[in-house]
Design goal:
alpha/beta, 7-stranded parallel beta sheet, DNA-binding, EC 5.6.2.4, DNA 3'-5' helicase
DNA sequence: TCCGCAGATATTTTT
DNA sequence: TATCTGCGGA
């Protein structure tokens, strides 16, 4: 221990770094030892502790920035943590690795690509890519006759990879006499082989291949074991087995070659932070045991509990505590706060999803009238499909909103096409990418031609890309042959610039020279026009990327896009309400939170009810949602919900009954909203605290008025203060104010029945009377 | 090869 | 409710 970098802390950590911390937090910042588990309840200031701990290590010179590896759950969290550390101690923070598991592993794998038998230019398959590949394999093997589905096979394989079971290992353990197992093995084998051939990795590979790399090449592992002296992992409760194994590898004492003369080093110190009550990714292989059994895995580790909550009011915490206490086999935790009980939780039962959405919109406007900013409000949903009615009502009410990860930009067909061009140029081995763009824009290369090329490629064992050059030998029509050869030449030519050119320039060259952009612009279809605009947006994103990363290559850009997550696009200052899934909401906090769709079959979700541990996990999801709220929490549900064309009756979520009745003030309860038997499960939404019974059901025609998908357009209808209007849902009213101009003009209307509303004049379902 | 139509089909959460 | 698939005709 003569190394000055490994000395125990002296007085190196300044008081400023410890300012405002409670004793447990302070200990978590200052503790020095081999392994530390920080059990951080919701809102207990763990990010602050983690950043100060890192800052302390740097400030006291116990570590250089390059010796720090911090793993966060999202890229955005990583960027924020980096900023905060920099803010605490200045530039000395540069050189740290703060990133997600996936980003860190890709970085390692690119450096060591050769060792693992891949090219440095490997591409990353997202879920859609994996699905496309799996679809082909299942079709080819006729595996659907045995009941295999694309999703099913992929999730089996994903689980195997998360358990670090590769094809060989699975072949050894699989029960081959079971025909289904045998076919699964074959699917796994072909899937793996196809990825290899394409020089590509899927999301799970990124982690597992890194572990395999470290195990197969101890000298490579030693590189990182020597380098990283402090490994910190946030959200540890959501790590899967492969990630756990990776952490274990990283904190192993580095093994040195015989006679290298290097001094032995202890393993890196490990700090993990997490809360088993917030584990919500079991479906992705997250294993709660990683955190529960941490002390067994890493003997002599120190455990620090952070139980004081600095985020929420006592009412919100009481609700959260009451709910989560229904999960048995958990270590009791007792979150407390000193800020006081705060406002009551507000409950609301709508007639339909639209009614519920209207409630949310109305309450948001009230909050805004009371001085809140849209940024301070978030609306949570269980499933992505729930966002639609919310969007429709928000548009009508002129409430600015964002849906991080909603209709994902990078998942749109035209954007994927453009990305496939880039991928094919960066990684010519990627057949999947080439197949996607071969006939986009239309070149007359149909399925028959593709099959001929595929056969040729297989015969000669070459990637599809090389077949483009051999096209004249395939005996196809002259027109098609020319088209193929020209495509090949274009890709080759642009491919030659990849190492030096800026991503945006490469993309622009591809989009113009193939005529893809132009073909969309000229088509006359308004949808194609929007698609062309999306391509332009992609170009400008590529430009932005280069501005942010002046050295960034095409490969870097592709990696960034592949690992871009929903939570990364949350902007806290853009003046809009965020609508997101409960999963995306993890780690975030808002003054006001709306938890919507609190119904059976939605939360808990129908699909989870029969899964082992499913109900407990859904409850944790509910818990995560509740604990995001700082001051105000709204719980809402609908008595009927439209799903896939028809409407079904919804029951209140069983979890609602777990919240003590006195904490909730029901604006409109299930009491009258649900017709029929008021017994049994209906008790779940308490009636005794009903504040007001819902009005008699409206005329059927009124509340089933379909809110059409196509945006209504009132042309250049203009309204002035004093105008009387009629709204299809709200009835008659009088305009009290008009703000904004042109298509964004907003009218404030005092309705006779429905109260005051804000409406976007151009699209609201209104007419002057 | 391309286009349009009819009918089937899926239906959680995500790096 | 979309989105995808398969089929027949141009």
């Amino acid at each position: 221990m003569s190394d000055p970098l490994l000395l125990p802390p002296t007085t190196g950590v300044s008081d400023a770094l410890l300012e405002g911390l409670n004793p447990q937090q302070r200990e978590a910042v200052l503790y020095r030892g081999q392994s530390l588990l920080i059990v951080a309840g919701a809102g207990s200031g763990k990010t602050s502790v983690l950043t100060r701990r890192i800052a302390g290590l740097l400030q006291s010179r116990e570590a250089w920035p390059s010796q720090i590896l911090a793993i966060t759950f999202t890229n955005k969290a990583a960027a924020e943590m980096r900023e905060r550390v920099r803010g605490l101690i200045g530039e000395a923070a540069d050189g740290m690795w703060i990133s997600t598991f996936h980003s860190a592993c890709v970085r390692i794998l690119r450096r060591q690509a050769e060792a693992m038998g891949m090219k440095q230019s490997f591409t990353i398959y997202d879920t859609a890519d994996s699905r496309a590949l799996m679809k082909r394999i299942i079709k080819e093997l006729d595996a659907d006759t045995l009941g295999f589905t694309v999703g099913g096979a992929l999730s089996r394989i994903s689980r195997l990879k998360n358990e670090l079971t590769d094809v060989e290992a699975f072949a050894r353990t699989a029960n081959i006499s079971d025909p289904k197992e045998a076919v699964l093995l074959e699917i796994f084998r072909q899937y793996t082989a196809a990825l290899r051939r394409a020089n590509a990795l899927d999301f799970d590979d990124i982690i597992s291949e890194t572990v395999f790399l470290f195990r197969a090449f101890p000298e490579v592992a030693a590189l990182y074991q020597k380098r990283f002296r402090h490994v910190l992992v946030d959200e540890y409760q959501d790590t899967n087995h492969a990630q756990y194994a990776l952490v274990r590898e990283l904190v192993q004492p580095p093994r040195f070659a015989e006679g290298s003369g290097e001094r032995p080093l202890p393993g890196a110190s490990l700090t993990v932070v997490g809360d088993s009550d917030q584990s919500i990714y079991a479906f992705r292989g997250a294993d709660i045991r990683n955190i529960v059994e941490f002390e067994r895995d890493f003997p002599h580790s120190k455990v620090i509990l952070l139980e004081q909550n600095y985020r929420s009011t006592q009412n919100i915490l009481d609700a959260a505590n009451a709910v989560i206490s229904n999960n048995f086999d958990r270590k009791a935790k007792n979150l407390f706060t000193v800020v006081g009980s705060g406002e009551k939780i507000v409950g609301y039962t709508g007639y339909s999803g639209h009614d519920e959405a209207q409630f949310v919109a109305d309450e948001i406007e009230k909050l805004r009238d009371a001085g809140a900013s849209y940024n301070d409000v978030a609306v949570f949903v269980r499933t992505n499909s729930q966002t639609r009615p919310l969007e429709e009502i928000f548009i009508r009410s002129a409430i600015p909103y964002r849906i991080p990860g909603g209709t994902k930009f990078y998942e749109r067909a035209e954007v994927k096409d453009a990305m496939a061009y880039l991928i094919q140029v960066a990684n010519p081995d990627d057949d999947l990418a080439l197949r996607r763009i071969m006939n986009v824009p239309k070149r007359g290369i149909g399925p028959a031609t593709e099959a001929a090329m595929q056969a040729h490629a297989e015969r000669l064992g070459m990637p599809l890309r090389e077949v483009l050059r051999d096209a004249p030998q395939l005996g196809l029509g002259p027109k098609v042959t020319t088209a193929i050869v020209e495509l090949g030449e274009l890709l080759d030519e642009i491919g030659a610039t990849v190492a030096t050119a800026a991503p945006a320039d490469i993309l622009t060259a591809l989009l113009t020279r193939t005529g893809y952009h132009q073909s969309l612009k000229n088509s006359g279809d308004p949808q194609d026009e929007a698609r062309a605009e999306n391509l332009e947006e992609l170009v400008s994103q590529a430009k932005e990327f280069r501005t942010a990363n002046p050295e960034g290559t095409l490969i870097d850009f592709l990696t960034g896009v592949a690992l871009f997550a929903a939570a990364d696009e949350i902007d806290d200052h853009d003046g809009s309400v965020s609508i997101m899934t409960l999963h995306t909401a993890k780690g975030l906090e808002y003054d006001s939170v709306f938890l919507t769709g609190l119904e059976e079959d939605l939360l808990p979700h129908r699909m989870s009810v029969n899964e082992a541990g499913g109900l407990a996990e859904e409850r944790r999801l509910f818990y995560v949602g509740i604990t995001r709220a700082r001051k105000r929490l709204f719980l809402s549900l609908a008595a009927s919900r439209a799903s896939f064309g028809d409407v079904s009756v919804a029951m209140p979520s069983r979890y609602l009954a777990e919240i003590p009745g006195e904490l909730i003030e029901w604006r409109q309860s299930a009491g009258g909203g649900f017709r029929g038997g008021a017994q049994g499960r209906l008790r779940a939404a308490p009636m005794r605290d009903s504040y007001s019974l819902p009005p008699a059901p409206k005329q059927k025609t009124e509340w089933t008025t379909p809110i059409t998908n196509k945006v209504r357009d009132n042309g250049d209808l203009t309204l002035a203060v004093g105008d009387r209007i009629r709204h299809t849902d709200f009835g008659d009213g009088r305009v009290t104010a008009v703000t904004g101009a042109g298509p964004k003009a907003v009218a404030e209307v005092q309705f006779e029945q429905a109260g005051r509303k804000r409406l976007l004049i151009k699209i609201a379902p209104i007419e002057k009377v």
